[in-house]
UniProtKB/TrEMBL annotation:
This is Uncharacterized protein. It comes from the Eukaryota.
Length: 482
């Protein structure tokens, strides 16, 4: 029996070795265009922005995406050839990479060529600094495309350098793609400093003043109506606004990223997702001036693990239900995370007057270090004093907080459940929650309003305000489910 088994293993090994040698022989080629003339110094042709209002799932749903709980193996970033495909080096298309020359046309040409080849690799080589203007990298492309950034890829330096014809809502957009990877050992630099100083909300103007209205600042990277995406290994920093944004996507793996911007940089969310499902965010370090990770309406089946946040505004679901809209969020898991020196820990925030539901949310094994509002549900979220209390609200139910430990900033209660007057928060489970003051003494007990749930273990500090059972009006509130 043993000799027969070894004979089978030997036979399989011979077959695999033969197939591998054929594959290697077939991919010893690299396709590069002849170097083109240097791109013109003028602004690139305007690429229209995808309509934000269209950030819904495609009419024809993509195939079943990768399982976020089982991330695929990373591409070999040490080798500039893709498996079975061809390498398209941007310098072969005229990119200069001196940090000043406009390399936009070269990147567009390289993308157009790589997009047409299966398992192609678009290479941004190390040792260069490439400056490009707002661009949409559009699909559909052949499957297996890898965009590998080993050098520095950077945006124009502030609003004064931004062409009038270009969208100020976004810098790089990846649109209608399937089976695409953005990876590398390099840096994506947003040059956001001048944007942060704009004298408009939420930015600060002279002498602490602001001008009315939001700032017109671009998100750094946007993935729109795409599926089966992998983003891995990059340093992404100093974005004018959101560092990464996913709209209308399905099947996303984010792994081993470093995202950074200063603590006071406004509206610089690390990773924002909306209308997106089947997402895995793993093993990343994020420090910025807003939410570390923000989860907007239309998101489901999101797994976040091994993330370190801080400084930041924590990991947030919301805000949801703005301007009486319906918001549906479900099956979100955050585990084995560290949140430090942040204004919030784990948070759910909704506007009065919205509808829909937030359900199936689990926060587990989270270490807090000097965090305000470690655990917070705020159904009275408002950016001004003019918000009124309304009857309708997003229904929040099935929340689990398990093994949440560490220290909190005593300026705010460590646990805060402010639920709607008419639509209670229900099925809240608290287990092994131990939060102690970072400095000073415990000054505030946990706060609860219309919140129902159970304590599986004694909570520190004790949360006596959580009500047992279910509210009498549960039947009415259940209509807010999605």
């Amino acid at each position: 029996m043993d000799s027969h088994r070894w004979l089978v293993i030997l036979w399989i090994t011979i077959i695999l070795s033969f197939q591998y040698s054929n594959n290697v022989e077939g991919r010893h080629h690299t396709s590069k265009k002849h170097k083109s003339k240097s791109p013109s110094s003028g602004s690139p042709a305007y690429a229209p922005s995808p309509d934000d209002s269209a950030s819904e799932s495609p009419d024809n749903p993509p195939p079943v995406p990768s399982d976020p709980s089982n991330p695929p193996s990373p591409p070999d970033t040490g080798n500039s050839t893709s498996i079975n495909g061809c390498t398209f080096d941007v310098t072969s298309f005229g990119a200069v990479g001196d940090g000043n020359t406009d390399d936009t046309d070269a990147f567009r040409a390289a993308w157009k060529a790589a997009c047409q080849v299966e398992s192609a690799l678009l290479l941004v080589p190390s040792g260069y600094q490439f400056m490009i203007y707002s661009t949409i990298f559009s699909g559909p492309c052949k499957p297996g495309l890898v965009f590998q950034v080993d050098g520095v890829l950077m945006a124009p330096n502030g609003p004064d350098c931004w062409p009038e014809a270009d969208s100020k809502q976004q810098w790089l957009v990846f649109y209608r793609l399937d089976d695409m990877t953005l990876t590398g050992t390099g840096t994506i630099e947003g040059n956001g400093q001048e944007w942060w100083n704009l004298p408009c909300k939420p930015h600060m103007g002279p002498h602490g003043s602001t001008l009315p209205g939001p700032c017109d600042s671009p998100a750094l990277l946007r993935f729109f109506m795409s599926s089966n995406l992998v983003v891995r290994g990059l340093q992404i920093q100093n974005s004018p606004k959101f560092h990464m944004k996913f709209d209308g996507c399905e099947g996303v793996i984010i792994d081993k990223l470093s995202i950074s911007s200063p603590k006071l940089s406004p509206n610089t969310d690390g990773i924002h997702i909306q209308d997106t499902r089947l997402v895995g965010i793993y093993n990343s370090v994020i420090g910025n001036g807003d939410d570390c990770i923000s989860i907007g309406p239309g998101c489901s089946d999101v797994d976040i693990e091994g993330v370190t946040c801080g400084p930041s505004h924590g990991i947030s679901i919301g805000s949801l239900g703005v301007q009486h809209s319906q918001a549906c969020v479900s099956n979100i898991t955050v585990r084995n995370a560290i949140i430090k020196d942040s204004d919030n820990g784990v948070r759910i925030k909704t506007w009065q007057g919205g509808s829909g539901s937030v359900t199936g949310i689990s926060f587990e094994n989270i270490q807090m270090e000097n965090v305000r509002n470690c655990i917070i549900v705020d159904q009275y979220y408002c950016l001004s004093k003019a918000c009124r209390n309304e009857t309708s609200a997003v229904y929040v139910t099935d929340l689990t907080f398990r093994n949440i430990k560490g220290t909190y900033d005593v300026r705010s209660p460590p646990i805060h459940f402010a639920c709607s007057d008419t639509v209670a928060c229900t099925n809240i489970t608290m287990s092994e929650v131990e939060l102690l003051p970072f400095e000073g003494e415990l000054v505030d007990d946990p706060f609860c309003w219309n919140a129902y749930g159970v304590q599986e273990t004694l909570t520190i500090p004790p949360i006596d305000c959580l009500q047992d059972g279910l509210p009498e009006t549960l039947g009415e509130s259940s209509r807010y489910g999605c």
